[in-house]
Amino acid sequence: QVQLVQSGGGLVQPGGSLRLSCVESGIAFGGLAVAWFRQAPGKEREFVASIRYNGNNPDYANSVKGRFTISRDNAKNTAWLQMNSLKPEDTAVYYCAAGWAAVPTEGRYTWWGQGTQVTVSG
After folding, report:
1. Cα 21 to chain center, whole Å?
2. In the sheet where 18-25 sits, what is the strand order?
């Protein structure tokens, strides 16, 4: 059984930075695609970023492109989401997800982290 444990997040002022971590256990992390999604209050969960099993071809939602970076280290079973130049509209609960294909569709991801709150306010 795959488990994803998230850390990071919190409260930051506009323009600030945060880094989210997602640690996987259970099966070979190096075979999994990883993505980040977020859900703001009153809104549907939306795609943020994804990365292939080998770290190639990261993909981003237009709203975060140029500000967020997804990365991974298969030796550490860990993926990260570095968030820079944060805006109030980035406020949401962020989820990491793992599956067999790096696509922007949440239904394609089998395993999910517990979620972590990111609040951008100042």
Report:
1. 8
2. 3-7, 18-25, 78-83, 68-73
